[in-house]
Design goal:
By secondary structure, this protein is an alpha+beta fold. It contains seven helices and 14 strands.
């Protein structure tokens, strides 16, 4: 972690700037100083360098100063992140989408290990997802949501969804709101794919999948969400089997509201996906049905108006709900203070009726 004196100095500098400076009128001479402070605030989040309360405040200051992780020219999708292991900024050539490789994983609750499992929870079993897909590293943020609303002229949403700081997850959204964003982002990524060149490896595979039309942006299925959250070993939380209030923004953490995405880096999943436990509940495209999980039994039918599953818990939920196996269902037209979403890029063939 960075030296404590540097961390606290950057934290205090951020608070002073936000409280005492008109950020709309920063002179050219002082912009480099502002930029250094906001990069340090992003380092604080990614390095888990302060207690949760201070990280939350650092995240809000970062939003006010302009979060350097996100690119306004690309719908505020992430284009860079701080890597604590390398101690350097690294590019996000896939705009924050993380590859989840094809293959089996353990889905559901294991009562032998999971002492908080409810009697009606579904048993753990093996599910094979025979395709690669890409899960967004963060839930959709307020800034990303605003970019969609303004670009698409979208009207059917709750104004409360735009009132949090820009780098917090959007909330107060319905399932239909989330699906509308997916359709817009799908077209936006196709446009961006025409501008991408000279990439290799996973980044090239991602953009080729987008450009081909064989993949699309959508809400994740329950299985896609759970695999991205727990990996293949059947763990209870993204980070392991023991709950830790410093790894997820839940009621036990004591913050009482959402936090900037990425403010709980020690809660990352095995694939490096963040905020999968706590912060906001995340809509999936799945209808509540019993296990064993069968994607061909109608549970992923987008045409139905049934209840839909949300995953991941929120800031007002408890550790039991933050388990990656926990399922919460609600009506798709409902919006709540803890309802948000994240997106996934999946094969069209698995997302059609």
């Amino acid at each position: 972690a960075p030296p404590p004196e540097d961390v606290w100095g950057a934290f205090l500098a951020g608070q002073v700037l936000v409280e005492n400076v008109d950020l709309r009128r920063v002179s050219p001479r002082n912009r480099p100083k502002r930029d250094r402070v906001r990069e340090w605030l992003a380092v604080i989040l990614a390095s888990n360098a302060l207690p949760a309360v201070e990280r939350a405040a650092a995240g809000d200051a970062l939003a006010a100063l302009g979060d350097p992780r996100f690119d306004p020219e690309r719908g505020y999708l992430p284009t860079r992140r701080w890597d604590p292991e390398r101690r350097a900024w690294v590019d996000e050539p896939t705009l924050g989408f993380v590859r989840i490789p094809a293959g089996p994983f353990r889905m559901g609750s294991d009562p032998q290990k999971d002492r908080m499992a409810f009697d009606d929870e579904q048993p753990q079993h093996e599910v094979d997802l025979p395709y690669d897909y890409w899960m967004a590293r963060y839930p959709v943020t307020v800034a990303q949501w605003r970019a969609f609303v303004e670009a698409a002229g979208y009207k059917d949403f709750d104004p409360n969804s735009l009132r949090d700081p820009d780098n917090r997850p959007v909330r107060w959204v319905t399932w239909y709101n989330a699906m509308a964003y997916c359709a817009w982002l799908n077209d936006r990524l196709k446009d961006l794919s025409r501008q991408v060149s000279s990439l290799s490896g996973e980044a090239a595979a991602f953009w080729e999948a987008i450009a081909s039309g064989w993949y699309r942006v959508l809400l994740p299925s329950e299985a896609e969400w759970e695999k991205a959250a727990r990996g293949t070993d059947g763990r209870m939380y993204p980070w392991g089997d023991e709950f830790d209030p410093d790894k997820a923004n839940t009621m036990e953490t004591g913050l009482g509201t959402t936090t900037a995405v990425g403010a709980f880096p020690r809660g990352a999943s095995p694939y490096g996906v963040l905020d999968l436990s706590g912060n906001v509940w995340e809509w999936t495209r799945s209808i509540p049905k019993d296990y064993p999980y069968d994607p061909a039994d109608g549970r992923e039918d987008l045409r139905l108006g049934n209840f839909r599953i949300l995953r991941g818990d929120s800031f007002w939920g408890t550790r039991g709900n933050a388990r990656v196996s926990y399922r919460y269902e609600n009506r798709p037209h409902n919006r709540r203070a803890g309802f948000g979403f994240r997106v996934v890029v999946v094969p069209v063939s698995v997302s059609e009726p």
